[in-house]
Amino acid sequence: MRAQDSATATRTIAVTTTDRTGGTVRIGSSGTTGTVRTSEAGSSGGASTAPARGAATDTSGSRTDPLPRGTLLAALGVLSFSLTFPSTVWGLESFGPWSLVAVRSTLAALIAGTFLLVGRVPLPERRHWAGLAVVAGGVVIGFPLLTTLALQTSTTSHAAVVVGLLPLTTAAFAALRTGRRPSRTFWFAAVSGAVVVLAFTVQQSGGAVSQGDLYLFGALLVCAAGYTEGGRLARLMPGWHVIGWALILCLPLMAAGSAVALSVEPVHLNAHGVIGLIWVAAGSTFFGLYVWYRGMASIGIPKASQLQLAQPLLTLIWSVALLGETLPLAAPLAAVAVLVCIAVTQRAKS
Question: Which one-letter DSSP state was computed for residue 95?
């Protein structure tokens, strides 16, 4: 550009350029002034808007939860649940079955209520209360009560393997409730895993079905319904809100039940009984369900439920380490078969 003479009026020149600093450059030459703002897009010269650091987005711009994180949360829930039966057996050393269930739910509700109060969490919408009631009836009252009654006559290892049917039951409930249909490969692997668990159960029990088994089968149904409804609600609100409000919903009933049961059933406090009660209340009922529902919301109810195929095998390990039970010889074979089924269901389209 040739310089103009001194009579030329001062002009403002708009220039678009870029540098690597993202700063502002002022240019003054021969009476000409201008302001140049550099693009923040870098040396390429194109403008772009970068997402916030650490946020995962999909093509629609919505925030997504990465699959590995959801799987990790669901697996952590399974690990917490695997300690439930051994902890329940410890708890029964100090409390009767009705007292243990009522006090367990009451303590868990108080923990949840504290978190909800500190977090100033608003009440759920009216349309969510019916689902929360299903969660409360299934996983807060039904499953703990039925499994505790079963453990009075069944060993921990036997109960753990029967409850290994829970993934298939949950997947079936989820298909009916949500209308989604997993692939044939998914169902084949899920049913295969259930057959392995069922064969293991029959082999260990000598082919007989006891009253404890009936309690356990009932526990499967109510828990699967609670898991399914909780997983659905966890897509609409944080997972700990789901279990928190379900526990609060049960608090009046469980507090009254605690008072009645403790006055009727004898209490003999010891270290095992106290530790068992604390774990089933804080570990299994609150923390375990919190991470479990977060995981289900991320990876889907069918896939998350299949991770529970590993739960009876983990419980078998805890039953040997904590309770001194004898590990069945068929357990290693069942473990390998179940883990193969887990791998297939995790890769199958759901």
Answer: S
